[in-house]
């Protein structure tokens, strides 16, 4: 080996060899740092805080609902008190109206009584004339728009025997209706009547009992309602009262049409 080659070998030998990293140190360098765990108290605080907020919201909602309920009840109470006050005021005013109407009606009744007294002689004279007209009152009754709807075929047979009709004005504005019949094979009565007694608190009615011949009570033995059912103490219908007193009795010619 030459001198130069020996020197080169020596120089190479003298160069520092790279240091080897020990295995434990390499593993230590490659491992990640562990995640630092939060304290347990803080974790529990974070998990319980939403639950507490929810409970607070529920409590606030309950309180709000109770307040609203109290407000509604208070408003209803005020409305009820106002309604009661209004109703009381209306009742008081209505009583005043009723009292005034009663006074006016009494004056009208007084005038009506006086007029009936003045008309009485004329009614008698009229009756004498009407007695000469066959079936006059029968035709008046059956042609009245309201009464005609109440008359059955059997009622019609009895009404053909009606010879006269009159209205008697009694004391205290009481009224009596009298129907006179010719002899017939249906009833024994010559006159049947019905009266209306006007009392302060009610209207009372009285009537004669119809005596039917041979048990032929047309008010019971018929499937249709009979006009003669009106002759009952329990029937105080004022619509028929008005028909007879204010229309048929005062203006009979308005309903008279001679039958064929």
Task: Report on the architecture of this protein.
By secondary structure, the chain is an alpha+beta fold. The chain folds into two domains: 59-132; 133-254, 2-Layer Sandwich (Arylsulfatase, C-terminal domain). Helices cover 52% and strands 11% of the residues. It is built from six helices and four strands; from the N terminus they run αααααββββα. Strands 1-2-3-4 form a four-stranded antiparallel β-sheet. It is elongated, with a radius of gyration of 56 Å.
Fourth-level CATH superfamily of the largest domain: Nucleosome assembly protein
> Considering DSSP H and I runs of 4 or more, what fraction of the residues is helical?
40-55%
CATH class annotation of the largest domain:
Alpha Beta
Please identify, by name, the CATH architecture of the largest domain: 2-Layer Sandwich
What series of H and E elements makes up the topology? HHHHHEEEEH
Organism: Polysphondylium violaceum
Family: Belongs to the nucleosome assembly protein (NAP) family.
Region (Disordered): 1-67
Biased composition (Polar residues): 1-31
Short note summarizing the structure:
With 260 residues, the protein is of the alpha+beta class. The chain is 52% helix and 11% strand. The N and C termini lie far apart (178 Å).
């Amino acid at each position: 080996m030459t001198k130069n080659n020996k020197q080169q070998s020596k120089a190479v030998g003298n160069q520092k060899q790279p240091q080897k990293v020990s295995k434990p140190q390499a593993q230590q360098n490659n491992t990640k740092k562990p995640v630092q765990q939060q304290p347990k108290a803080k974790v529990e605080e974070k998990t319980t805080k939403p639950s507490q907020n929810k409970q607070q919201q529920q409590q606030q909602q309950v309180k709000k609902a109770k307040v609203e309920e109290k407000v509604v009840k208070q408003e209803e109470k005020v409305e009820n008190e106002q309604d009661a006050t209004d109703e009381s005021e209306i009742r008081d005013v209505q009583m005043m109206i009723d009292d005034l109407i009663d006074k006016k009606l009494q004056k009208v009744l007084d005038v009506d009584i006086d007029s009936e007294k003045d008309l009485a002689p004329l009614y008698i004279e009229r009756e004498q004339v009407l007695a000469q007209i066959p079936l006059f009152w029968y035709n008046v009754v059956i042609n009245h728009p309201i009464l005609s709807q109440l008359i059955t075929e059997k009622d019609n047979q009895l009404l053909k025997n009606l010879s006269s009709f009159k209205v008697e004005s009694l004391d205290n504005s009481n009224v009596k209706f009298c129907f006179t019949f010719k002899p017939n094979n249906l009833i024994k009565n010559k006159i049947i009547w019905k009266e209306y007694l006007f009392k302060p608190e009610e209207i009372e009615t009285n009537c004669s009992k119809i005596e039917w011949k041979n048990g032929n009570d047309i008010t019971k033995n018929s499937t249709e309602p009979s006009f003669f059912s009106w002759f009952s103490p329990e029937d105080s219908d004022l619509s028929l009262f008005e028909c007879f007193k204010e229309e048929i009795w005062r203006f009979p010619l308005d309903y008279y049409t001679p039958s064929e």
